[in-house]
Amino acid sequence: MACQTIRSAARLRPSVLGKIIPDSLTSSRISSSRFVRKELFPSSFYSQVRMTSSSSSDIQNKFALDNKYQGLENNVWVEFIDLNAKLQPLNLGQGFPDFMPAESVVRELAKTCDIEANPLLHQYTRGYGHPRLVKALANLYGNLINRGINPMTEVLVTGGAYGSLFCAIMSNVGPGDEVIIIEPYFDCYEPLVRLAGGTPRFISLKPENPTDASSASWALNMEELRSLFNVKTKAIIVNTPNNPLGKVFTRQELTDIGDLCKEFNVIVISDEVYEWLVYEDNVHTRIASLDGMWDRTITIGSAGKTFSLTGWKLGWSYGPAHLMRNLHIAHQNCVYACPTPLQEALGAQLEKEIKRLNTPDSFFYKMVTDLKERRDLMVRSVRDSGMIPVVPEGGYFMMVNWKPLENKADLSEETDAQADYRFVKWFAKTHKLLGIPPSAFYSNDHKHLAEDYLRLCFYKKTETLQKADEILKHLKNS
């Protein structure tokens, strides 16, 4: 670097450290390296050059990833979205439909963005949630849990359900606190708890009857759960219907969890984003509605899952004012406000849906009826292939046991530690169908529990599911 600087100084004849290079020196004496070193560039120049060089080499060390993010570098979505872009397989990995959402909600957004509409709908709105939307949410959930909900103090609109999870965990969990996480869990739970300074404690749902094909057979050992509660326990995160399993927690299971929370003075962060997607005679119970649970429950919902609008990235949470105040403070010091036009359109759509609840005209009714047909189509395809589905009671994902076809998979070139990662990558590369490895939804010590499975999304066009059926048949016959 020093030599480059000297050559540049000689070529451009500038003022170098206060010295002007005379014309008479630029063609003759400047060629003498001894003259350049002693006359034009004093020792202080070289010290500065060395300091600059040293500083450049230290930048990466000084600005390395901060300690709080160390260990959180890997992300299943980043990895498999990149793999999808590279391989262009049939994508049954990510959880979104490959067709248009409800026409009515799209039209509401078009109305909001019309040139004749209120211009203020394109500007900042209330930070904790656009008035029309929070009022609709308070009305909706107030009716569902049979209590009044204050839209201004007991509701928060966030950047997706992820935003509500972030605010709930960051504002209520700190160093020394423990948070119980039920496996399998959506993969952000653990890193958020660790970022907040808390310690995650894990307990796994396990099939009580391995031959039972339903997610209903997966249950908690309540004695094991009790053993995790102690004076340090701050919260438990419950996801019902569960992603990726599709389990719908029964009223009794939630009552047992709630009783432990009341006994040990623990809050519940209830992730209920798939609340409308419940099949057969299963019933979604909102834990906040159970006796004595409102005051200690934060419930989280999602426009992406409710109206198939994952790209809108709108979520919400509701609960008692003393807990929601914590979330409000976290939110105002992070995102602060969410997009106004999207909130206005969503609020207008919810107002319509509230009037249609429990009728055949309800979008929620139509959606779950449609999804059940798609689920059953995938169940048949998986079974015909020789693999074993865990038939979900809710949600739009299916855990599939791939071990019966293990002898057809050459995983020797895949290097991941977990077998499900190796199988999913081999399957995408060899047969052009992409799923998600569910060990991503388990803690390090429990990842082995998911290695025999892959997760598939069935919220896709019928043509997409038919293509998947063809791929599965080809796998069986290969």
TrEMBL record:
Q: Where is the Aminotransferase class I/classII large domain?
A: 90-468
* Catalytic reaction annotation: an S-substituted L-cysteine + H2O = a thiol + pyruvate + NH4(+)
> Listed GO molecular functions?
cysteine-S-conjugate beta-lyase activity; kynurenine-oxoglutarate transaminase activity; pyridoxal phosphate binding
Pathway(s) served: Amino-acid degradation; L-kynurenine degradation; kynurenate from L-kynurenine: step 1/2
| Gene Ontology, cellular component aspect | mitochondrion
InterPro entries from the entry? Aminotransferase_I/II_large (IPR004839), Kynurenine-oxoglutarate_AT (IPR051326)
How it assembles, according to the record, is:
Homodimer.
Q: What is this protein called?
A: Aminotransferase class I/classII large domain-containing protein
What broad taxonomic lineage does this protein's source fall under?
A: Eukaryota, Metazoa, Ecdysozoa, Arthropoda, Hexapoda
